[in-house]
Amino acid sequence: MTTTTRQHLLRAAERIFAEKGFYGASIANIAGELGLTKQALLHHFGSKEKLYGEVLQAISIRISEDAQTIRDQFDTPQSQLEEMVLAQYRAQLSDHTSARLIMRELLDNEQRAEKAGNWYLKPYLEELVSTIQAASDTPGLSRPRALARVYQFLGAAHYFAVSQPTLTMIFGRKLMKDATACYEDELRALVHATLRQP
Asked: Taking a C-beta distance cutoff of 8 angstroms, is the pair 120, 49 a contact?
């Protein structure tokens, strides 16, 4: 299997997992939507768990590459943190599939959490925690408080991004377009205010 074919299969599987969740998507269902036999899919990925893990790993790689680009382009921890939060928001806004899958992983993972061998998004989260510790006006900001603040940012960015279709139906296309246009400013303000907190 070529790298391009494998990437295509992973993106298609990502869409199915995002729509149905880990438990709602069966290997037979995924294989059928990909135009493969169940045996062919298992030959390439081994199990549904391994396929799902590769999908999460691909998302993690994309996020980590974006974070590395930001670290290379911006000098201060404050600007790096701000740009990482905005990059995450923009990615989720433009790629609803990944955003939905990340949300499902956080919500649906209770049964698998104790057996999980690899937390693919952990390096990115650790990066954000260390960046906010370096960026904070509070010397020696603790890891627990840094993690809580990271989730303030990610929660605000993620929730608004994944809520777009529903909010558009509730408030109308024009209001949501205008709200989306100013949401980055709100995220920037949240980052700046949080960095000043003791």
From this structure: no
